[in-house]
Amino acid sequence: MFAFFRALKRTDPALCLERISMGEMLLVDVREPQELDTTGFANGAINLPLGRLAAAADASNSARHTALSPDKPVALYCATGARSAQGVMILRKLGYQHVHNLGGLSHWQAAGGALSR
Questions:
Q1: What are phi and psi of 104, to 5 degrees?
Q2: DSSP conformation class of 82
Q3: What's the confidence (pLDDT) of residue 42?
Q4: What angle do CA 32, 5, 15 make, to 5 degrees?
Q5: Can you tell me whether residue 74 is helix, strand or coil?
Q6: What percent of the chain has pLDDT over 70?
Q7: Which domain holds residue 80?
Q8: CA distance to 41, 44, 70, per residue, from 59 (Å)
Q9: Buried-most residue among 15, 18, 60, 68 (CB within 10 A)?
Q10: Phi, psi of 91 (to 5 degrees)
Q11: Bridge-based pairing state of the strands 74-78 and 99-104
Q12: pLDDT per residue over 80-93, tens digit each?
C-alpha cells in the first residue's frame, strides 16, 4: 500500500516536459483509446493502456513495445494520476529505475504541454 502512495506522488510536469522535448524521457499515456478520442493526448506520447502496460514493457516479451527500455526514463499520465501511479508500480516491478508519475492530462497542459487530436 505504501508503494502506491509513493507512486501516486507526482513529478513536476514542467521538468518532465523539458526532458521529453529534449528526447531524454519517454511519455506514456495509460488511458484507453476512447479517452484519447474524446480529450486528445499529449504531443509525443505513446498510448499503452494500463491493462497492456506490463506486457508492452516486459523485456522478456518478444512483442514488447520497442520504445520502452528499463534504462530510459519514462513519465506516465492518465486522466487524474491514479492509473499512472499504478503504471509506475508496474514498471518498477519490471526493473525500470527512472519512472515518473506526471499525473493527469490537465497537469501536462498546465505545464505548457501541447495536445494532439
A1: -105, 170
A2: H
A3: 97
A4: 70
A5: strand
A6: 93
A7: 2-116
A8: 26, 22, 8
A9: 68
A10: -65, -40
A11: parallel
A12: 999 999 999 999 99
Q: What angle do CA 57, 109, 15 make, to 5 degrees?
A: 65
DSSP strand pairing (115-116 vs 41-42): antiparallel
Give residue for cell 516536459: 17
Cβ-count burial 43-69 (b if 16+ within 10 Å, e if not): eebeebbbeebbebbbeeeeebbeebe
C-alpha to C-alpha distance for 42 and 85, rounded to whole angstroms: 17
Looking at the structure of the chain, the number of domains it has is 1
Nearest by Cα to 73 from 31, 20, 111: 20
Task: Output the domain CATH number for residue 99.
Answer: 3.40.250.10
Q: Taking 90 as the threshold, does the pLDDT of residue 76 lie above it?
A: yes
Q: In whole angstroms, how far apart are CA 16 and each of 38, 44, 103?
A: 24, 12, 11
Assigned C-alpha cell, 100: 515518473
| Helix, strand, coil % in the chain, rounded to nearest 5 | 40, 20, 40
